Amino acid sequence: MTAPRRSLDDLLLYRLSRLVGVAGGMVIRLCEGRFGITRREWRLIAVLASRGELGSSQLAEHAQLDRARTSKAVGSLVEKQLVSRVARAGDRRQVLLGLTESGQALYGELFPLVTKINAELMGALGEEDATRLDESLRRLQAQAERMVQKAVLPKADRGRRGAGGISPPSSRSP
C-alpha cells in the first residue's frame, strides 16, 4: 500500500483530469472549431463508428454518458444530419441510431487527427512504458467498475440544495 496522499496533485483522478484537460483540449478545439461538434457529440459518433447501429440506451452505456445527455446530443447530431434514427425491424417503437454518410465522413476525417494527437502524446513514453501504462489503465478501469458496483453513494438531489448548490455539512449523510 502507498503512503496517504497529501495534496491534490498526488491524487490519480486529479492528475488524469488535468491530463485530459490539456491534451483533450486540443481534441475539443478540433471538434468545435473545425467540425462544429461538441466533445460529447464526438464521443457518440466514435462509438457508433466502432460499434455500428445501437439503441439510445446502449449508446449511452458504451459512451459512458447518462441517458439525458445522450438524448440531447443525439438530437443535435440528428439536426446536423450526422446521425439517423431508424425504426428497428419488427418493433417500430424501438429506434436504432446510426451514422449517416456525412457522419461517417466526419469520423473518417476527424479520427486520424485525434489518433495523431494521441500518438504524439504517447511518444513521451517508450514502448515498454506505453505497454505498462495500457495494462495499468485496464486494471484501474476494472477496479473502478468493481468499486461502482459495491458503492452505496447518495444520488444528487438538486432540488433540495441551498442557493450555492451544496448541502450544509450537518445535513450530509456519512
Automatic annotation (TrEMBL):
InterPro entries to which the protein is assigned, alphabetical: HTH_MarR-typ, MarR/SlyA-like, WH-like_DNA-bd_sf, WH_DNA-bd_sf
GO biological process: response to stress
Domain HTH marR-type residues, every copy: 9-142
MF-aspect GO terms: DNA binding; DNA-binding transcription factor activity
Region Disordered: start-end pairs: 149-174
Keywords assigned by UniProt, alphabetized: DNA-binding
Keyword DNA-binding attached: yes
Descriptive protein name: DNA-binding MarR family transcriptional regulator
